């Protein structure tokens, strides 16, 4: 068993001189790291992983005894004495293709294969690049000196500017005091665009030369304005000379906040400014804003230990919306929060066995297996949105200024943040947040009129089986009636005589107005009818909330989908993107009740036709100059619904547009390109078309076009083409491992691809484990499967295959959760199928 001590306790580094010589040809790194710090005892441990250490020496060059302890990722060194020490470690290491540590990215320009070297160190891979105390609290300054098999025209960048080049060695300015997981560098043939903020920070966007230079413009503008925004919002200047953004062709996560050199998946950074969806712009902007939020919250002030990783991530996840809302107010990005983070959190957090936001961990490898995006990001962000709504922006900013000031270049915990926000607001934020962060799950608040009294109660909400152990939350209620408490912390509350309250308020009773608190509401029939009768007065978020809460209640068996279905037509003609999104999410959840190609599915298709007809007529197939932002986002939803409905005019219209643009598919309007391609493959597909699309996929650098092609190709109904697609899964020249999950998910969602995709996963599991097994994304392949399966047969197959894998610590929790997810869906389908399908039939007759 590895020992779980923090190396920082015995040795506190203050400075590293890191020398690296990277040879791409031989895939070999040789290095020498000189470390200065304070030893509490002569016997210390320094992190290393996969390093071959040849010498440990004092500053004077005397050899020091050392032993390698791979079980603990350590080299153990005995110093001459405790106290201030400087010593060097000489080693060599492999350059591996794991997308961790120092690794190559592969890409092509005009058929010529190229490489770009980059780094990814969070959470614990800096130790694969150089020996260090690889813990967030072990902050130190770093001086990097890097040599590589350099060719003319190549560039190298890092956290800090280059100071000088001597004998082919690039020396970088010493960093500020920072954590090892934030060190980064990259080299290869790069193009870049630069600008400067009002305060003089140099901003740059870097990418391979495979991209059209204009793809760098949008991210450059967003990065510049984000830094300017945060300097103002945090009342704290950006402390480094530059902020570089770099797109890496191979990237395991989405993006990474290395201080001064943020790295991104290309699809989340570069975009074609002349043909891109508003959604894609919003995605890129929020990703950049997220990583740049971390430059302060995470980089300047870092969590003390990995158990508070949520603090970094939840906070940055909230700030991406705060920042983008300030940069692009016309986007109404907080509305998008309601259709992205909110449903993800509410769905996942309702499954018994889910983790809480804050989970104590010792071993950083363990955190990878506990790291649940829907909880740490989505629920965590929702928690902070709740705090922000409670204390307001002024107190938030004052508290943050305090927090950042007190812990700059140092570390902090969640408790430190609550203390600062508590002080700024005069509220017991820590007390309120404790009930949300340290408990899994969330409550359903039941609002009912009982014996004439308006009453509230709270109870944990579950989808599927859940053990109610009487958890309670301190719920910010945000009611429109003054009689409701601001914080509802009891099990039940009686607010007073309903008729009187209703008359005095003049509007239906509601709680969670704005949907900023993490709970759902079940109104009794009196209250719900009152709300629905006045639905036209409700804003977009309130309308979405009706659909979303009823959908969740139906998932949890607290109401029936048969009651939800008749409500859908009321929202069909909404011009709001988020109401439309919620509507088609609700409609989509009815699909699990129908067998593909059955009469019941035909009824459901007819319902989709009804729902979409008016909007298809209003909006048409092609973007118009007069489109509002909402129109642009509504159009793909309603066209997609018309295509699912097999509406003949829709199929013909898409086919016609395809025919007119056969030779320039990339230039089809990005909003509808995916639908046009998918329609073509599904209804008019030939092997030649699939080949043409796969070829285009390999050639384009446009992430949206790639995902459009992926969606289209995987929609094939031809078994031979399905087999051809699967044959590409393990060919990195077509499908990069970072993109494979998307391919797998798309094919599994296609009824005609499901069996083959599932067979592939089971047959080639060993290959998959070898390729992405060390990755945080690995368990999400199981999540994808659980998102699709809905029959007892599939449930049995799922269990047969995954039960024996439960002892893999990276998979244990996910397998348990997903077994529950499928079980509850199978039960729900069995129980509700007839009623739901009858309700749909009634709507379309
Ligand atoms: N710091 C994370 C990436 C990360 C987290 C790497 C944990 C290793 C372990 C980064 O800031 C991040 O959150 N990236 C997101 C994208 C983001 C825009 C939501 C990701 O990679 O999914
Ligand atoms: Zn993050």
Automatic annotation (TrEMBL):
Start and end residues of each Peptidase M1 membrane alanine aminopeptidase domain: 218-436
Enzyme class: hydrolase
Gene3D superfamilies (UniProt xref): 1.25.50.20, 2.60.40.1910, Neutral Protease Domain 2 (1.10.390.10), tricorn interacting facor f3 domain (2.60.40.1730)
Domain of life of the organism encoding this protein: Bacteria
InterPro entries per UniProt: Aminopeptidase_N-like_N, Aminopeptidase_N-like_N_sf, ERAP1-like_C_dom, M1_APN-typ, Peptidase_M1, Peptidase_M1_aminopeptidases, Peptidase_M1_dom, Peptidase_M4/M1_CTD_sf
Keyword Hydrolase: yes
Cofactor(s) it depends on: Zn(2+)
GO CC, any one term: cytoplasm
GO molecular function, one term: zinc ion binding
Transmembrane regions listed in the UniProt entry: none
Active site: 291
Subunit and partners: Monomer.
Annotated protein name in UniProt: Aminopeptidase
Organism in which the protein naturally occurs: Schleiferilactobacillus shenzhenensis LY-73
Lineage: Bacteria, Bacillati, Bacillota, Bacilli, Lactobacillales
This protein's encoding gene: pepN
